[in-house]
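I am still getting used to backbone structure tokens and would like to learn alongside you. To get us started, please write out a protein record for me. Once you have written the record down, we can walk along the chain together.
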Amino acid sequence: MTENPLLTPSTLPYGLPDFAVIEDDHFLPAFRSGMARHRAELQAIAADPAEATFENTFQAFERSGALLRWVQMVFSNLVPADGTEVRHAIDEEISPELAAHADSIYLDEDLYRRLAGVDLDAVEVTAGHRLDAEDRRLAEETLKSFRLLGADLDADSKERLAALNERLAVLSSQYGRRMVAENAASAVWFATAGELAGLSEQDLASAAAAARESGHTTGHDGGYLLTLSMFTSQPWLEVLEHRDSRRRVHEAAWRRGTVPGGNYALDLAVEQATLRAEKAALLGYSSWAEYALVDRTAPDLAAVRGLLDRVIPAATANARRERETVEALAGHPIEPWDWPFYAARVEREQYRVDAAALRSYFELDRVLEDGVFAAAGALYGLSFRERDDLPGYAPGVRVWEVFDDGPSGSPDGLGLFVGDFFTRPTKSGGAWMNSFREASTFLDERPVVSNNLNIPQPADGEPALLTVDQVNTLFHEFGHALHALLSTARYATLSGTAVPRDFVEFPSQVNEMWMYWPEIVTGYARHVQTGEVIDPDLLEAIEASSLWGEGHRTTEYLGAALLDLAWHALAPGTTVADPLAFEAEHLAAAGLDPELVPPRYRSSYFKHIFAGGYAAGYYSYLWSEVLDADTVQWFRAHGGLTRQNGERFRTELLARGNTRDPLESYRAFRGQDADPEHLLRRRGLL
């Protein structure tokens, strides 16, 4: 065990895991050592004969479990990013043990009594000063977590809760494993290039390379393989000229995880929703949704439904009008696999925007360095230096050291940014941000954060060209990274993105605004071959077309948000015998038609809610966008991309994390509450 690199701190800069020496066999022993050490530390806190103080209770609790936390953060980054069969097997084995370990903490009466017995108004830390607001916030949030996780239950209820938690951990792990496997297995093989008319030469070469690499699994020799994103609607549908090819791609995406046998995922979704309803009832709530919203900025489920109900009629009306436009262009009724193709034609013909041609202006490295990084420099004084000497966990993973040239900057560097941009068969679909280390002055840790995207791997020697949506995603995910990198929190528990689920998307959505900001876009949007800056008239056309398709995009999102709430508003004891009929029934009841616009995700590939932390929280994107749209108006009214504006947003909001109520941070930045009209206007819903 002394040779296990996970059992000792990393010697690499900022504590970056040394992936060159970490092997899969190291994880299970490291997890179990971490849990054992954590239990001993917690027992010492609970049994301490000294008078309970903030330092020997809450600060000791915050400091405990350092080894386990380190191992979990390394492993939880690897599973979605490079989830091999071995790692998924480890995840399934360790998940119930971790769930049981968490229960042993939050259901421990002695530990809870020790923490709850501290008089926060009277206690002083050893340094002799009374608790400041951040100390008090840590104590309040810690006690709230204990209560929400069952500390007040009787013995029988705690026993049942522990069993539920263990089973839910297993189900989530199994769902994630099946989802990744099914997504890879659902890639669509084509025999000839003619079937893929409309694809660029680069995409065709990438599809041929994908077919060669996966020939042993597809059973085909040669041909072309189109891999799938995690969304229902696939980006290939915008350009594929043959209707039958589009149909094959759409149907492969739509039926993922719904066919019994193999990677069937609906049984796991149903069981999770059912057990969550039981767990919520055990904790005193009518549904999982009601329970989950206790720890959100939304006041209650009625407020969430009120926002969705306000948006649905206008969004679906817009979608029907858009459908009339594309059907007139197509000359026939539109199926879901036709919509992206003809919508793109409308952009080209009515707005003079050719999404496929635009990719030549969006080369990955230039977008990243002269766009995303440049905006962070202009706003916050950050600079970035790639560290080729630091190891990634998979080929193509890159690491940058981040420097803070602002007033509070340090010559030692702020932290590390890890970029993992390309798809691989072992990678979950979609895009996300994770942390390997969190900013914490109390633990003397600086942040190490990662962004994951799923850009198709270009052929050897070819540049990676992005779609407009992928450029937007790059800016969005880096907004999450900034939230973590710029945190000045004392405690890791309150640091960076450790905010309520329906607030966490807000900073990332704000960061999207710099994508088309004049000083930024002219720096990165240059033709990959000629270096020519994108035509300002083309940018104006893109802006003019921004509302086109908004009805369809909003309705796609609303479908997924409503499915999430439908599953998590189940009353305890409810049985869902036919999950596909359940989907259709609840979408129709809300006024949504999957034949008009399919939801962004189905229950069989809805990673956010069945293999992530968004259960009863997918509404968060729209909820956060109210703040985002209001903030964009503030930036525009105050001069836009300036260091002064960036410092205000950084100091009052990004740096704060959860050290105070996030809405209090918003009001400190904005000077008032957000006005929802800005969101409705942006989405063309007024």
Observations:
- The two ends are 63 Å apart (CA to CA).
- The domain at 360-546 is CATH 1.10.1370.40 (Neurolysin; domain 3).
- The mean pLDDT is 94.
- The CA atoms of residues 653 and 666 lie 6 Å apart.
